[in-house]
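Below is the data:
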Amino acid sequence: EMESRGLLAQALVLLAVCLCVCTTLTRGGGAVGAGVRARSLNGQEKSWLQHRPAQPRVSSPRCQQGAPEQPPVPPRIPENADVTADQAFKAVLRATNDGKKRQRIELLLPLIGATDLDDWPGGIRQQFKAAQPMVEQVLQGLRRELRITQSLTGKILDQGDATATWFNDKMTAVLFPTAETIEYIEEAVAKGDDHLVVLINPQWNKGGANFVSDFGWGQRKAKAEDLIKSFDTTYSFEQRKQSGANIKLFRSYPEEWKVLVTEDDKSFDVIGTDNERPTYQAVEQMLKVAYPDEDILSRFVREIKEKGISGMQ
């Protein structure tokens, strides 16, 4: 009996020592096997490690919550025609290097000869005068960077609509394309998959609830629209008024579309982004989410008054 008690006491002491060692290692954060010579794995263990099923990585709740999502960074808004053309050229170049040979760009043209009643009293021909140097800046940059030695030939396709083209064996650009020049675009596309075709500020109307498509009806319309859809919009900078807000739509390949609101064309708020061109309805919803408590027009009038701009009372 005395011997049994002695063995029991020794076992309890040994258990206490083991518990103390484990607790110390756990608190210290050290490796449990520190100072212990590792045993070589046998063949069965090696086979299990090589063929064990992959375990999914699970983030802790703290990692999943993370820091609050940062708002999109406003892009650099071009302050003049030269910057716009440079941005467009670089976007087209990036897309071309990624294999996109059918592209569409939309340039915000500088106003020339505007009046209080009409931004473009001279119509589309006046817009052509503003667009021509920008288009030529884009094309010359592409020739330089793509190492195209052949010069570009310019040609007017339609005097009334001021539709023009620049072309050589490697590329074709069409400014202000219309439904009447769709066959010319088909011919340019037919030159091959390596032939770059760029449409600039298209003027056609694809129809809608209150409009008849410029492409007519039936098979002719379907064929033309299929061709148009094959072009990727790689650069776009456009503006419009919506719900009293000054809206800018901006896209520069490969970035997504950004919807911006500005009151002075100097500071911009990004109110939404999209992989596709935002529709009117999508922009309207973005405005409601961004400014849920007040009418957009009232907000801008109030802010202008607070800043003392334009003498509003």
Observations:
- Residues 2-28 form the longest helix (27 residues).
- Strands lie at 102-106, 153-158, 163-167, 171-175, 196-200, 232-242, 245-252, 257-262, 269-274.
- The longest strand covers residues 232-242.
